[in-house]
Write a structure and sequence with these properties.
Plays a role in the regulation of phosphate uptake. It comes from Marinobacter nanhaiticus D15-8W. Keywords: Cytoplasm, Phosphate transport, Transport. Belongs to the PhoU family. With about 240 residues, the protein is mainly α. It has one domain: Phosphate transport system protein phou homolog 2, domain 2 (Methane Monooxygenase Hydroxylase, Chain G, domain 1). About 85% of the residues lie in helices and about 0% in strands. It is built from 7 helices and no strands. The N terminus is likely disordered.
Length: about 240
């Protein structure tokens, strides 16, 4: 694959370059924090580690605080630098993308909450294989979305968008399996329902990762591919 060129940060003003670079670095730092939250929450659930689950829930405040700081940073850049064209797309996209990162953090917090309750009640009899599988899938989507942002890689972003449909299919299959099991053995409904909520949170993480990818395409191509058919998005990336 050809190397992607970062078209940002080539201004005469050294300070403007630093402002944009700092914004990108802070976004990626927040992304790394959220990515680790997701990984740790899944591990806590599968390992039945209530202590780790409780610690993950506490980390959510750090993510919320960083979201506010990045929003303020982006607002200052708009006010002071009055960016245009590609730079404006970067700043606006970051403002929107931090919201998706914060929501991914919220979903990780939900998973941690169910991990904590299941560590106290006892593990559910089914669903952990599906959690691990879908968790790995959406975790890779999130990592790829952050990588696509860092390299301004619209082709990688497009692949992430295509993965979202597969995640939806995996989620639907997993919930059908759990519903069938609960119908056969109603004694486990409560704990299986917790796993179903975890699967729902993972599916939402996939949705938010897809949103991140759509913003990367907007940054790279100047075209908004949200709510457009995949064929149209492919044409945008191919141009």
């Amino acid at each position: 694959m050809k190397k992607k060129e970062d078209v940002y940060g080539d201004h005469i003003s050294h300070q403007f370059n630093e402002d944009l670079a700092g914004l990108k670095e802070d976004f990626l730092r927040m992304g790394g924090m959220v990515e680790q939250q997701v990984v740790d929450a899944i591990d806590a659930l599968i390992d039945g580690d209530g202590h780790r689950a409780d610690e993950i829930r506490g980390r959510d405040k750090q993510v919320d605080r960083l979201e506010l700081e990045i929003d303020e940073e982006a607002t200052r850049i708009i006010a002071r630098r009055q960016p245009a064209a590609r730079d404006l797309r970067l700043v606006i996209s970051v403002i929107k993308m931090v919201s998706d990162l914060e929501r991914i953090g919220d979903e990780a917090k939900k998973i941690a909450k169910f991990a904590l309750s299941l560590s106290e009640e006892g593990k559910a009899p089914r669903g952990y294989v599906e959690v691990r599988h879908i968790g790995n899938h959406v975790g890779q989507m999130l990592r790829d979305a952050l990588d696509a942002f860092a390299r301004l890689d619209s082709e990688l972003a497009l692949r992430i968008m295509k993965e979202d449909k597969r995640v939806d299919e995996e989620y639907q299959a997993a919930t059908r399996t759990l519903i069938t099991f609960m119908m056969e053995d109603p004694r486990n409904i409560s704990r299986c329902m917790s796993i179903m909520w975890v699967l729902r949170a993972l599916e939402r993480i996939g949705d938010h990762s897809c949103n991140l990818a759509e913003h990367v395409i907007f940054m790279a191509k100047g075209e908004d591919v949200r709510h457009t058919p995949m064929e149209e998005a492919e044409k945008v990336v191919g141009n």
